[in-house]
Structure formats: structure tokens, C-alpha cells
Amino acid sequence: MEREKCLQAMDFLKDWSAWRSSLNEAIIASHKFGVSDEKVKEISEKMQEFLTQKVCPATKEEELLKEMWNAARPEERKTIAGLFFKLAD
Predict the structure, then answer these.
(1) From CA 1, how far away is CA 4, in angstroms rounded?
(2) What is the domain-level CATH number for residue 83?
(3) Which of 23-27, 53-57, 66-70, 85-89 has the highest mean pLDDT?
(4) How many Å apart are CA 69 and CA 80, to the nearest integer?
(5) What is the pTM of this model?
(6) Would you say residue 7 has pLDDT above 60?
(7) DSSP string covering 14-40, please?
(8) What is the pLDDT of residue 1?
(9) How many domains in the chain?
């Protein structure tokens, strides 16, 4: 039951294009408020940490990302967050 609830909450992540577009819109909005790319990457890192700890992966790709995040050292996590930033920007 709890797993189903978790997966339903994450339905919006099932479409990679929509997720990437949403992330791009968030980056654009942050720039309008004067937030630097470095700060956006820092926030992205914190979001990934939260998602990894609190949200069930809904797809095999999300499960892989979670495993990679958990195995990564802090500097590698910065790289992962930076790559997501590059993909979305």
C-alpha cells in the first residue's frame, strides 16, 4: 500500500521530456530572480538528496540514479547534479 502511494505521487516523473522541460523552466525562473548557476546546482544537489532519501523510485532509471547517488562521494554527487543541470539548461 505505501509503495503504491509513493509511486502515484511520482507519476509526473514517468515522462522524461516533461520532467526535463519542468527543470528547464525552473532554471530559467531562477535566473530571472538573480540566482546563479552555482546556487541552482547546489539546490539541485539538496533536492536529489531529499528525493533519494524520501521518494520511492518509480522506474528502473530512477532506481539506478538512486543507487548511483548513494554510492557517490560528495564531489561525485556535485558532478551528477551538474550533469542534470546541463541536460536541462
Answers:
(1) 5
(2) 1.10.760
(3) 66-70
(4) 8
(5) 0.69
(6) no
(7) G-HHHHHHHHHHHHHHHHHTT--HHHH
(8) 44
(9) 1
